[in-house]
Amino acid sequence: MKAIVHVMLKDGVLDPQGEAVRHALTALGFDGVEGVRQGKVIEIDLAAGESPEAAEERVTRMCDKLLANTVIESYRVEIA
Amino acid sequence: MRAAVVTFPGSNCDRDLALALERSGFEVVRVWHKDTALPAGIDLVGLPGGFSFGDYLRCGAIAANSPICREVVRFAEGGGHVLGICNGFQILLETGLLPGALMRNSNLKFICKTVTLRVETALSPFTTLLGEGATLDIPVAHHDGNYQASPELIRDLDSEARVAFRYGDPLNGSAGDIAGILSQNRRVLGMMPHPERASEAATGSSAGAAIFDGIASAFASA
CB neighbours (10 Å) of residue B197? Predict the structure, then answer.
């Protein structure tokens, strides 16, 4: 089983890296790029034998403990 | 007076911090991140600058979950004094001992230069010898020093006089130009600038030595 964690800066938190990417895209001639937010994706391989619900609960705890800084970041867990 | 200085894989200011503390009269014990206990009779823990665990995931995030940091948190929660500089500040935020977060500098550049700091409160062992309103020139060297927190938290830090230092001029996008903050009990200080790199005239400046002398004087008079 695989868990995919998406970590993004919370809405309203200034994302200077996303802003730099936006500028670069505009400089390359891509019109209409109104905003870019940069985050990260973390893939976790989990041993078999756990229910998807239990896995989601456990990965959520991983997010709160380490994978995301919930002061500035939000996360979303997908079990695949 | 005894201080422990923690070394993580990737710390690079640990030796400078130990030397600066020794110069101010501390006996310094070096501690490794995998240690599961702090040495007995410690008055102060120093978390040094550097790039612990290669800044992987987020600066300070992995170090904050290391075995020694569990003990550092326990030490601080029991009223112990902790000084986190640069990466050490990032680690303190990741442990939750200090509030808020440090983000990428707003200009996206690694900033390495001497800046002027303003002392915002004398009410801490770290700033007692400097005095409110004093200025000191100290180097910064960081990529992620842009301090951010909710407006409510910034207001609380201001009203409780927990901002220890501000940059004299806007530097990295930090809210309110905050360069260092104190815990509620004023015994934990996190700061981005490097006083340990300015604690001996031979290396260019000794402006930072007053911070270490201040901690020493607090213990000497306790």
Answer: 23
CB B194 within 8 A of CB B14: no
Query: Nearest C-alpha of chain B: how many angstroms from A20?
Result: 8
ipTM: 0.86
Question: Residue B92 pairs with which residues in a beta bridge?
Answer: none
Alpha-helix runs per DSSP H in chain B: 14-23, 67-77, 87-95, 151-159, 209-220
CA distance B177 to B157: 13
A54 membership: H or E segment, kind and range? helix A52-62
Chain A residues whose CB is inside 8 A of the B148 CB are: 13-14, 72
The DSSP H or E segment spanning B147 is: strand B146-148
Residue B32 structure tokens: 């490794």
Residue A67: its chain B contacts at CB < 8 A? 57
| Per-residue tens of pLDDT for chain A, all 80 residues | 999 999 999 988 888 889 999 999 999 999 999 999 999 999 999 999 999 999 999 999 999 999 999 999 999 999 98
C-alpha distances in Å from residue B115, one per residue of B111, B122, B140, B194: 10, 20, 7, 10
Please name the residues in contact with B104: beta carbons below 8 A apart, sequence gap of 6 or more: A16, A17, B143, B144, B146
3-state secondary structure of B71: helix
pTM: 0.94
Nearest to B154 by CA among B126, B186, B177: B177
Under a CB-based contact definition with an 8 Å cutoff, are residues B28 and B5 in contact? yes
- Whether A24 has its CB under 8 Å from any CB of chain B: the answer is no
Spatial neighbors of A8 by CB under 8 A, at least 6 apart, are A37, A39, A73, A74, A75, A76
Q: Are B39 and B75 in contact (CB under 8 A)?
A: no
| A71·B100 Cβ contact <8 A | yes
Nearest to B91 by CA among B67, B44, B117, B58: B58
